[in-house]
Amino acid sequence: MSVAKKIADSVLAQVVLTIPIYSLYALLAGLSTLPSVLLVAWGVRALASADRWIAFSIVLGFSLFLFFQTAVLVMGLSIRLLSLGVKPGRYPEKSATVIRWLLFSGIYTMMTQLVLPVVPMSFMTNLFFRLVGCRMGRNVKLNSYMLNDAYLLTLGDGVVVGGQTDISCHIYENGHLVLQPVSIGAGSVIGAHCYISPGVTIGERCLVGLGCYIRQGASLPDGSRLTSIGGVPLSIAQRIEKGRF
């Protein structure tokens, strides 16, 4: 029995393992807040003591955005380091690779809760995903932060990803974690609220309309135009998918 399987099967081992994992998360959070804390400490000494509360409030505001920028650097680089060597493939849920994946996915979850929702369509969002390992071209516009396992994601020049769109390079099935790359070609636009499954390849100059779901492993040729089918009964949608109009 592998060490990973023993850990997964033991409640005590899971509890013990949780302590160093969350200690790492706390360390990364602390490093991310350090410059902001130093800025606030300076503000307390230089401004608050002189009753300059308006100026001190402005310092607090700047310290918040300083935290966002530092977190992008610290968390992004941490995910990059922890994900090195984790390749596309199919991994049993009780394996060292899955434990490692859960570790850096937890850091990504922290970013999706604390930072990324606040800085959409900004250089900070693009910088974070570049640091994580996303192969990103020029002039890419990201209005979504739900780019899961972005180190397996390729975005060509001028790609636009709409709000709340979920691009996932992983799926869980039959007791296994499946990691597959996703590629979106230059000039393609992905509308809001779409779901792009693992293993999908989207060509150049494609348009994926609002609310589309693209199945695992699908390949869209250059210039494709897709739209979701809203309010259509399931039986009709199934006939359309099979080409039976």
Identify the quaternary structure here: single chain
Q: Determine the N-to-C terminus distance.
A: 53 Å
- Major sheet: 5 strands, parallel
**Overall number of domains:** 2
Mean pLDDT: 89
The parts where pLDDT drops under 50 for at least 5 residues are none
What level of helicity do the residues show? 40-55%
* Estimated structural class: alpha/beta
Order of helices and strands: HHHEHHEEEEEEEEEEEEEEEEH
How many β strands by DSSP? 17
Characterize the structure shown.
By secondary structure, the protein is of the alpha/beta class. The chain folds into two domains: 1-119, no CATH class; 134-245, UDP N-Acetylglucosamine Acyltransferase, domain 1. 45% of the residues lie in helices and 18% in strands. It has helices at residues 3-9, 11-46, 53-83, 96-114, 123-132, 234-241, and strands at 89-92, 135-136, 141-142, 147-148, 153-155, 160-161, 166-168, 170-173, 176-179, 182-184, 189-190, 195-196, 201-202, 207-208, 213-214, 219-220, 225-226. The chain has a five-stranded parallel sheet, with helices on one face. Strand 8 and strand 9 form a beta hairpin. The protein is globular, with a radius of gyration of 22 Å. The termini are far apart.
Give the topology, please:
Layout: H1 3-9, H2 11-46, H3 53-83, E1 89-92, H4 96-114, H5 123-132, E2 135-136, E3 141-142, E4 147-148, E5 153-155, E6 160-161, E7 166-168, E8 170-173, E9 176-179, E10 182-184, E11 189-190, E12 195-196, E13 201-202, E14 207-208, E15 213-214, E16 219-220, E17 225-226, H6 234-241
Parallel strand pairs: 2-5, 3-6, 4-7, 5-10, 6-11, 7-12, 10-13, 11-14, 12-15, 13-16, 14-17
Antiparallel strand pairs: 1-9, 8-9
